[in-house]
Write a structure and sequence with these properties.
This protein has 126 residues and is α/β, with parallel strands linked by helices. The chain has helices at 14-26, 37-46, 63-71, 88-97, 109-125, and strands spanning 6-10, 30-34, 51-55, 78-83, 101-104. The radius of gyration is 13 Å and the shape is globular.
């Protein structure tokens, strides 16, 4: 059996971060959580991840900066950006920075899991 995919979850809201972590762990993903963008960038520099789920609006460093840090790695994880303050401009900025997808809160667990699985499939094809 293959090792579970490692997912970095980044959200400054403790409840959302916990909910995402619980959801992913229940679906057999390995999860590391970060409470702000700066911590996430540090974790991306120090470890390997298959995917990142990050909020857009974060203290320390924005979600777009997290996307850029992830994409800067040679073994770049796919990044899913989530936000409660969705706009066309922020979606375009996130995708241009290299995000795989852009979802608005509140998140539907099944939709998030489907998008994550697609992101992991794309990464495995690279």
């Amino acid at each position: 059996m293959a090792d579970p995919a490692r997912v970095l979850v980044v959200d400054d809201d403790e409840h959302i971060r916990g909910w995402l972590s619980d959801l992913l762990e229940a679906n057999r993903y390995g999860v590391v959580a970060a409470a702000d963008g700066e911590q996430a960038v540090g974790l991306l520099r120090a470890g390997e991840f298959d995917a990142v789920i990050t909020d857009l609006m974060l203290p320390g460093a924005s979600g777009v900066e997290v996307v850029r840090a992830a994409r800067a790695r040679g073994d770049a994880p796919e990044v899913i950006v989530v936000t409660a303050f969705g706009s066309i401009e922020s979606a375009v900025e996130a995708v241009r920075a290299g995000a795989f997808d852009y979802l608005t809160k509140p998140l539907a667990s099944q939709k998030l899991l489907v998008v994550l699985e697609r992101a992991l499939e794309r990464r495995s094809l690279k």
